[in-house]
Amino acid sequence: MFIRSALRSGLRRNATRGMATQARSTLKVALLPADGIGREVIPAARAALEALGSDLPRLEFVDLLAGFELFTRAGTALPEATIEALREQDCALFGAVSSPSKSVFGYSSPIVALRKELDLYANIRPVLSVSKDPSQKPDVDLVVVRENTECLYVKQEVSEIGEHGRVAKATRLITERASTRIGKMACEIALQRPRKRVTIIHKSNVLSVTDGLFRETVRRVPSLPGVNGKYDSIQIGEQIVDSAVYRLFREPHIFDVMVAPNLYGDILSDAAAALVGSLGLVPSVNAGDTFVMGEPVHGSAPDIAGKSIANPLASIRSAALMLRHLGYGKQAERIENAVDDVIRDGTVLTPDLGGKSKTEEVTAEVLKRV
Ligand code: NAI
Ligand code: MG
Question: Which domain of life is it from (predicted)?
Fold first, then answer.
């Protein structure tokens, strides 16, 4: 499979499984803005795709419903029609959902469900800083490869009354199958980056059964039957999750590809986003073997929703990452270069990056440069 996370890594896509560039006459893209700022930033991602003009096959967009607001209106957060329509598309762009912190009867996060439903087993989150001088190496240039289907996200929680009051329990699932395929994905990504380093993030000093299985399984990937030495150039290391966060803040340059179970991957990527200036800059793709869905790392940001100040760059970069995954590397690069230019230029930025510009103004600035 692909992937290229950063221009300066010189990473180039190499489609090896199912999603190589096909001679398409159309590219069918589902748009699921969902909640909050998702509705403000997904139009920006769409516009960036459209700005590529004849460099892409004819684009066909379909708007699909999902989210908490939909749930409060229609009683479902992920209609069957949305899932069915998604199966007819080449790819999708997802905004963000607002999942309440308190349990709401009948509600379950549609993004977690979609990742499982479409078997999008990897959430690939490149985190890249943009240096003022384009010839300079970025300080942060890493990719968090997050397992996307299991860990605590299987959401098997129970509440009981124990001897001393209420007791809540959750099941954490780690399987050899999921750990193997995420390990392979991490190796494929590392293979295309100059440093070729994979760091396994775990807590197997405490969780020796679950994290122990994750660690061992990923470590074993290079020697699996059929791999035939393909990953021999990759250096596989490991770091316990808490010290990984510490080191991420002190010496982010030591990390290249970080592969982690679901929850650690989620937390690590928000932490890494702080290092590059804003959550509003960090893109991702949810990838499986047959489908890809771009999604900014950030959530629905209710504190700024409706104010037209959401940073659209994470979503625009997610559209580029999605293209790269589909085999349109050159086209992705046009978008990525335009985004980097806007950041480097620094005059048209949203408030999260210290600017005064609106979402639409930043989007327009990117479109001018695509
Ligand atoms: P959040 O990512 O929505 O926001 C965290 C902080 O970053 C906020 O101060 C917000 O204003 C800022 N921020 C996020 N994206 C930004 C952007 N594009 N431009 C400028 N500033 C931005 O996380 P939070 O506040 O913890 O969660 C809000 C809601 O989003 C919750 O309901 C949560 O469940 C949901 N969420 C959904 C995700 C998804 O759909 N994949 C991921 C994370 C959270
Ligand atoms: Mg998160």
Answer: Eukaryota
Count Cβ atoms below 10 Å from residue 53 Cβ, excluding itself: 10
Backbone angles phi, psi at 212, to 5 degrees: -60, -45
Ligand 2 geometric centre to CA of 261 (Å): 13
**Closest of 320, 332, 272 to residue 139, by C-alpha:** 272
Of 257, 263, 184, give the one whose Cα is nearest residue 220. 184
Q: Which residue has the tokens 């001679």?
A: 23
> Which residue type is seen at 278?
S
279 CB neighbour count, 10 Å cutoff = 19
Torsional sign, CA 97, 100, 101, 104: negative
98 lines ligand 1 (CB under 6 A): yes
Give, in order, the Cα–Cα distances in Å from 235 to each of 202, 229, 264.
17, 13, 21
Mutate-to-test residue for ligand 1 from 98, 279, 359, highest number of ligand atoms within 8 A of CB: 279
Non-local (6+) Cβ contacts of 218 within 8 A are 179, 180, 182, 183, 186, 198, 200, 236, 259
Is the distance from the beta carbon of residue 352 to the nearest atom of ligand 1 less than 6 Å? yes
Instruction: Answer whether 32 contacts ligand 1 (Cβ < 6 A).
Output: no
The neighbouring-strand residues paired with 194 are none
pLDDT band at 134 (very low <50, low <70, confident <90, very high): confident
User: What pLDDT does residue 22 have?
Assistant: 60
- Quick one: average pLDDT of 55-72? 97
Nearest to 232 by CA among 223, 241, 240: 223
